[in-house]
Design brief:
alpha/beta; 7-stranded mixed β-sheet; globular
Length: 216
């Protein structure tokens, strides 16, 4: 459980989600068995709805891991959608590419090996949606570079922003996580006060911030 909401509420919500089958379901089970962090089922369902309802065509993802979430996004967008996803771990890059190939998404998904801050500083395209799910301590450092490449009317979606409830409650903070918690609080404050953004934080998964870019 995520510690963001009560166990019984989270369990009940999961029972309402559509049951996934096939290769994506198998990939989720593999990730869970190996304890590789991937988007929660609630966040996955929310992102699928968001992508389809807003007709998202171009996505930038920070934090590829084994390619699960980018595969979910590709399926939700359909064959015309394009995703660029960034991952600094070389082994994860190779694994993600293999999974994308197995699922038939190689033409839709471009995996970039590298540091997210360096990549963000050198982007040349604009995106309909940016999904931020990399190193939690670096969200704030990435914000301005990412916003330069998010179209007006686009969405910045930041995952894990409540970080097991620690961001919202000092009593839950583990000593070795203090720096990450402080940085995430600073990031959420920056989102909330940013003149270009309208932001809502949802107690979903491990905390999800939805930021809408209203203008320059």
């Amino acid at each position: 459980m995520s510690c963001i909401t009560t166990d019984y509420v989270e369990t009940y919500i999961k029972t309402l989600l559509p049951q996934k089958k096939g290769s994506l379901k198998a990939l989720r089970l593999e990730a869970e068995a190996r304890r590789i962090p991937i988007i929660s089922e609630e966040v996955q369902n929310y992102m699928e709805i968001m992508i389809q309802s807003h007709k998202i065509e171009k996505i930038l993802e920070i934090g590829t891991a084994i390619g699960y979430s980018s595969s979910v996004f590709a399926e939700a967008m359909g064959k015309t959608g394009k995703i660029m996803t960034v991952e600094r771990d070389g082994e994860r890059v190779l694994e993600a590419k293999r999974h994308h190939a197995d699922l038939g998404y190689t033409k839709q998904i471009n995996v970039i090996a590298g540091d997210a801050q360096e990549v963000a500083a050198n982007l040349t395209q604009t995106y309909d949606l940016i999904f931020l799910d990399g190193g939690k301590g670096h969200y704030l450092h990435l914000l301005e570079d990412l916003l330069k490449h998010l179209k007006i009317g686009g969405y910045l979606v930041s995952d894990n922003v409540l970080y097991k409830g620690m961001v919202a409650n000092d009593d839950l903070v583990i000593r070795r996580k203090i720096t990450i918690v402080k940085r995430m609080r600073a990031y959420l404050e920056a989102l909330s006060k940013h003149p270009q953004l309208k932001t809502s934080v949802l107690p979903m998964g491990d905390g999800l911030a939805i930021s809408y870019k209203t203008g320059e």
